[in-house]
Amino acid sequence: MTYRTVLIGGATALLLSGCGRIDHIGKPPSFSPTMNGDEHVAMLDPGLPRATERRRAMDGSSLWTAGQRSLLGDRRAIKRGDILTVVIEIDEEAEISNSTSRSRSGSENMSVPHLLGLPQRINEELPEGASMDDAVALDSSSQSGGDGSVSRREELTLRVAATVMQVLPNGVLEIQGSQEVRVNFELRELLVTGYVRPEDISRRNEITYDKIASARISYGGRGQITDVQQPRIGQQVLDAVLPF
Fold first, then answer.
1. Domain housing 162
2. DSSP 3-state assignment of 73?
């Protein structure tokens, strides 16, 4: 690998890493496209309707249908493309403290009074009072102490609409939801993914986050303020590779 190849590769990596920030230079950050996204594709392909529902829909004389749009039908999300509301209410508090102390001392002495006669010859050349009898003397001591504490308080209350991406063979629903809110030059993003059981969905077509298996909840954003708060790419690389 030549120096030119390494230089071009590094320049390309830096350019790609800065593309996210270039998007909102002098203008608000752009929304993520909704067309042709995973949720949009799921809504366009809801799957085949049930045979009973299809026959009843074709029978115009019947006042009762088992579909979700009927007056007495179950309006909870049950198939691909349906939408349900995810309620996120996190109120957690944790506090951890610990302390460590360590000390060590050592002493080493080594004398070479008869090392091939070298000390005697060197002693003749040394000033009065100096001697090579005790050639090496080492003393060391170390002491370390540390105190650490963690105090964390998290409180988050959010609601987001999610789409059923697919129905697994055991009936579990895979859901995915996203929400973006732009205020001035800052864009807040909320992403939710996971798996839910249909019976855990309430009659209001809602489900709480603690009933979502493999829940992945991301609440952050991008924009000019976020860019200022984050260290630059070069600093992050140095923090990762420097051993001190």
1. 27-94+155-231
2. coil
Is residue 176 a part of any domain in this protein? yes
Q: Give the pLDDT confidence of 78-109 residue by residue, as tens digits.
A: 899 999 999 998 887 878 877 777 777 776 66
Kindly write down the DSSP assignment for every residue of 160-185, as one continuous string. Answer: EEEEEEEE-TTSPEEEEEEEEEEETT
Distance CA 175, CA 160 (A): 12
Q: Cα separation of 63 and 54, whole Å?
A: 14
Phi, psi of 82 (to 5 degrees): -70, 155
| The two three-digit tokens of residue 105, written as one number | 């001392």
H-only helix segments in 99-159: 118-125
Are 100 and 114 contained in the same domain? yes
Residue type, 182: R
**pTM here?**
0.57
Whether 210 contacts 54, CB under 8 Å:
no
In a domain, 18, yes or no: no
Together in a domain, 227 and 188: yes
Q: Give the 3-state secondary structure of residue 141.
A: strand
